[in-house]
Amino acid sequence: MKKEYTKDIEDDKTRQESFFTAAERAEIVYFMISTVQLNEEDVEFVADIGVKKPKRFLKKELPMIKILEGEGGGIEATLAYPYTKVKHNIFHSTMWTFATLNKLPINNMRDYYGEEVTYYFAWMQFYCSWLLVPAVVGLGVYFLRHQGITVDNNPVVPFFSLFVALWAVTFTSFWRQKANSLAWKFGTYNLEDTEEVRPEFRGIPGKERVSPVTGKKEPVYPYYRRYAKCLVSATATGALLLVAVAVMFCSLNLQGYIKPEHFGWIEELQEWSAPGAILDKNSAYMSYIPVCLHAIVIALMNSNYRKLAEKLTEWENWRTDREFEFALVVKRLCFEFCDCFLPLFYIAFYTLDIMALRSELVSLFMFDQIRRTMLEAVIPFFVYRGRRNLEKVAAKKEGLTGETPEVIRLLSKEEYESFDDYLEMVMQFGYVTLFASAMPLAALCALVSNLVELRSDIFKMTWVMQRPQPRRVKDLGPWQGVMVGFAVLSIVTNSMLFGFSSHQMMVWFPEFFNEMGTRLKAGEARYAVAFVFGVEHLVMIMALLIRWLVPPVAEKMQYEIMAERYENTQLFLNERMGKKKTQ
Question: DSSP letter at 45?
Fold first, then answer.
């Protein structure tokens, strides 16, 4: 029985000539097994394929796919089986060429890894190519400034920040069009209409309904039970966020950003950042220790919350993969957004200190880029080399010759998941757009980091991790909406930075301020506020205009859709006419 599940075609040539691609084969196997439900009485069957008996069952039934995945069964050998030639072609055409800004082997990726992974790499390529524009402009803003000019009083920075906000809106609009084109090409454009129920979805025992779509009986789970569970999840997330807020205030006090009149002042911690103290905030090196510790704590908290969020989302019992993913994205995004951006919002819009914001943003952003480079590129490389060396040593001890079969090596590797990569990229998108006034070089740093990230991801997938279970998707899912939300929010944040958190407005409108440039003149505040929000509304209207001018579906694709509908209508009419003639 085990051989039947792990058996595959023996050579690459035969595989390539097969009707189904490698990704489609894995999807078919996964779907067939996921439809099987095992009772406790039937579970002894799994012993025939070398799988341990699960310790417990959920409501007396468990999807067979969960047994095979969770207890080290043989299914991975089929789903993750390596088609070595195809995999290596993808690796070399991505790793050692300039394809990351030109053209990736999208078709080969889709045939081997499936649509979900392909969308990630297609988006990364699109994102990198679009980052070139704000990277070059930001480089010019930084190096063409006069001596003594900072982001606090640079007259060009307000225009750059609003340009980045409009760039973000334009980028998300054109990516929406690109994603729909890929979905049409992959045959997943209408995928939502045929989305299957998750194998892990559990209904109430004894309660079923007849599906209005298929006419078959299907399990039912009351919405009020799920919403009650969502409330519990929100409470647990909120409690952990309080811990994150406490850590934030400790970090900001150790860095000397909080003054006695500010909320969150902790005198005992402020003493550490005083002049001459261990963490002197004016020191060129020691002042970075608190922010590094803060970034490490953020990474650890995010890692621990990831496990909790997955368990809570599974407990909420969502019906489809899209609903499950959306719920998980909401939890993790809210937590990581607060964890990463709350200190920046506090400094920007409470202490109103753009120079402190710049220091905190540069420190957090650069530390995050270094952390990601280490985790995504350096560590995977040494893991790969160490694993190969251990295999050789073990082979010598056992007197074996030759290479370990690839399928055997795969079973000891973790499966690649694109969720964390999406989350990291979206948070980076937030760093680049939300506070463009404070860090004009953010886009350039992100571009350089992403070129390394893209290659490290393909390296991990080729040598370090299992091929992921292919999934058919039509776009980036909730991540597209998150990026649009960041783009819109960036208009508000950069307008507020211009008007209230810096001296940028004073540079352009000194008549609003007193001679010292520290306060607005009496009676001028309302005009200044009206101007800031007027600019913000004007840019918001421009953003809406961009979204309207860039249609979700390109004109060529629209014609193709209409042509297909016309052909389907003609086939239907011809079939009806043929039936009438035979009658």
Answer: G
CA distances from 325 to 175, 304, 318, 329 (A): 20, 18, 9, 6
Q: Please state, in angstroms and rounded to a whole number, the distance separating the CA atoms of residues 295 and 427.
A: 14
Q: What is the pLDDT of residues 299-313, one digit of tens each?
A: 888 888 988 999 999
Would you say residue 57 has pLDDT above 50?
Answer: no
| Helix 115-143 / helix 157-186 crossing angle, nearest 10 deg | 160
Distances (CA, A) of 26 to 5, 29, 114, 166, 472: 11, 5, 9, 41, 11
User: Does residue 52 surpass a pLDDT of 50?
Assistant: no
Q: Which two tokens stand for residue 54?
A: 């699960």
| Residue 344, strand partner residues | none
Q: Which amino acid is at 460?
A: K
- Residue with structure tokens 């979805």? 201
pLDDT attached to residue 156:
92
Q: Facing residues of 38 across strands?
A: 62
**29's tokens:** 């196997």
pLDDT in tens, 504-525: 888 888 887 776 666 777 777 7
Task: Name the residue among 165, 128, 184, 180 with its Cα closest to residue 483.
Answer: 165
Give me 76's structure tokens. 């991975």
Supply the pTM of this predicted model: 0.82
- Alpha-carbon gap, residue 244 to 294, rounded angstroms: 10
The full length of the chain comes to: 583
